[in-house]
Design brief:
Largest sheet: 8 strands, parallel, barrel
Order of helices and strands: EEEEEHEHEEHEHHEEEHEHEHHEHEH
CATH topology: TIM Barrel
Distance between the termini: 10 Å
Strand content: 15-25%
Helix content: 40-55%
Low-confidence stretches: 1-26
Mean pLDDT: 92
Shape: globular
Radius of gyration: 20 Å
């Protein structure tokens, strides 16, 4: 259980509200908190920049750093490099799209990252964005949930059994030699699942979820109960619900909110994100972002924990610049100190 940090919370739920503060007493968040890390656009060397940011996060007291997969830096390689170079901090991917990558390749990379980090790695995968994958790779998966289920089975066998025998409809994996990496086992398998079918596959074959832009209402009424209904009687690991939240501690809430609205509007074109925003009862992705002072952000994060999150992953803390990013990280560290 985390130690207690005293936080005074605003009574209003409106970002930047001038309403008087009320004291809700001592407050801490009894769950780990990590941050997503990505190099700044003006970095001379992207890997050096990621190492600098990860080191700063570790010195601040942040528990883990996570890396997304785009079309440039390789997230699994970053996890291995940071896990080896930066002591103690956890590393993870959030997330690696599965369609362009065979599970045997991902299992090999994941085990390498686990060995490099000394057991501090978690693998986050996702179904990806069909329009982007179609444009980039010329592929489109017409049975994504079936592929996800078979993919998770292949990953678990490769990592935990050292051999794989999956002859599925969407995934074929039968390596003729062992898949074991010594020091690379015991990897939690997390999925960026939010729809009912993907959640069911994840609950049955994975260890947890990495939902993004799914607010507390959606977490409590949809994601957590769906997973709990389908979990096996004796799961390999306890359920992990790593809630992805956009949060920035800043005194320029209105300005940063405008920047966030532009950055997050990208996600509104995708059905999976539109569905969770509708469940939450909000019109835009920025409406679930936590942008304001320490008290406002702390209260918003508490709502996710109360809704069932076992961990928090804070995204886009750099929206207001490096000073406010550090201020945000310091709050996160204090809440879990």
């Amino acid at each position: 259980m985390a130690a207690t940090a005293t936080v005074s919370i605003r009574a209003s739920t409106t970002v930047g509200s001038p309403d008087a503060r009320i004291s809700l007493g001592p407050m801490s968040l009894p769950v780990p908190i990590g941050v997503s890390v990505w190099p700044r656009p003006d970095a001379a060397n992207d890997v050096d920049e990621v190492l600098r940011l990860a080191t700063a996060a570790q010195h601040t007291g942040v528990r883990s750093v996570w890396f997304g997969q785009k079309f440039d830096l390789d997230a699994l390689t970053l996890a291995a490099v940071v896990g080896l170079a930066v002591p103690e901090i956890g590393v993870g991917t959030s997330v690696v799209p599965i369609n362009p990558r065979h599970p045997l390749v991902v299992a090999s990379q994941a085990q390498t990252a686990q060995a490099a980090s000394g057991g501090r790695f978690r693998l986050g995968i996702g179904l990806g964005a069909p329009p982007l994958e179609s444009a980039a790779f010329g592929i489109r998966e017409d049975k994504p949930v079936r592929r996800l289920r078979e993919y998770l089975i292949a990953l678990r066998q490769a990592i935990e059994d050292g051999t794989v025998d999956v002859q599925g409809e969407r995934v074929y994996a039968r390596p003729p030699i062992p898949t074991t990496v010594h020091g690379g086992g015991d990897i939690p398998l997390l999925v960026a699942a939010m729809g009912p079918l993907a959640l069911r596959a994840t609950g049955e074959a994975g260890d947890g979820v990495l939902p993004f832009l799914a607010g507390p209402r959606t977490l409590e009424s949809h994601i957590v109960p769906t997973l709990q209904r389908v979990r096996p009687a004796n799961p390999v690991r306890p359920l992990q619900v790593v809630a992805g939240v956009v949060a920035v501690v800043t005194d320029r809430a209105d300005e940063v909110r405008e920047t966030a609205a532009q950055a997050l509007g990208f996600y509104e074109q995708f059905d999976s994100y539109r569905a969770v925003l509708d469940r939450e009862g909000v019109a835009h992705a920025v409406d679930v972002a936590l942008i304001g002072d320490e008290e406002y952000v702390a209260r918003g994060l508490r709502a996710y924990v109360d809704a069932g999150a076992t961990e928090l992953l804070i995204h886009q803390t750099d929206l207001a610049g490096e000073d406010d990013q550090l201020r945000t990280w310091k709050l996160l560290a204090e809440l879990t100190a």
